[in-house]
Amino acid sequence: MSEHAGAPVVVGVDGSRAALDAARWAAGTAVRLHAPLLLAHTYPDEATFYNGTAMMIDAQFIQELREDGNSMLDATTAAVLQDHPGLAVERDVRSGAAASHLIELSRAARIVALGAQGAGAVTDYLLGSTVLRTVNHAHSPVAVVRGEPATAAPDTRPIVVGVDGSQVSEKAVEEAFALASAFGVGLDVVHAWSGEKQHGLAHASKYVDWTAYEEGEKAIVSECLAGIRDEYPDVPVNAVTTQGVSADVLLRHATRAQLLVVGSHGRGKVLGALLGSVSQNLVHHAPCPVLVCRARQ
């Protein structure tokens, strides 16, 4: 898309294994998007080191932190270029708060990527708050990289996108189609809808025409796909409408996906408030990277 011309894929680097995995994923994505890769590292500024007697750490140590950061980026650059020779790799090293740094870079980014590790533990400079703040406030889509480490080899697994008919859901669909086309893979468009158990209507289910209800839910998916399928005729689409708990349904489909794409806010429980239980479930427990999309501010 023209709005993304020249926009880099940004990745936060902190020296951890999770950050290296995120960098490798970001590098592969940048190659497929014909975009440069921007490695971002944030080191603490002087204010971080004020102690109880208000004594500031000396400038030499701050310089050492900056040099350490550049060394991390040197190692990361070597790793991604081994996978993708010829990739344009840039860097941005500065002091301050990591989330603020990434949010600022997101203004001109195609995607911002960060690493995640373990059973829901987000690995970054601020023990999780950086990832959550970046996902919540970034101006570009944010990828929380989970699952098996990325490889340089092509991945033929599909991309999964969750839809609910909202405006940001449409944004997620646009991103998912663009990435599926760039990756050369199929797209699973998944919509989960609440039935009698989720609504607490088991006692009144005989009064509900669930067939008609389901048809209405299928129409949501059709509306999401109207027009955009013609823009990406190269992308095979598998549209799925199923009854169930949103997070459970999306996590189940994510087991066979290379990427799960969702919007940051939705119409009801499918793509609820960013920091709600569904989004946190996906970001913390998906078996693959999760791309969270929001309208650019």
TrEMBL record:
Domain (UspA): residue spans on this chain: 9-146, 157-294
InterPro entries membership: Rossmann-like_a/b/a_fold, Universal_stress_UspA, UspA
Keyword ATP-binding listed: yes
Keywords: ATP-binding, Nucleotide-binding
Pfam name, any one: Usp
SUPFAM superfamilies membership: Adenine nucleotide alpha hydrolases-like (SSF52402)
Family the UniProt entry places it in: Belongs to the universal stress protein A family.
Protein name per the record: Universal stress protein
Gene source species: Rhodococcus opacus M213
Upper classification of the organism: Bacteria, Bacillati, Actinomycetota, Actinomycetes, Mycobacteriales
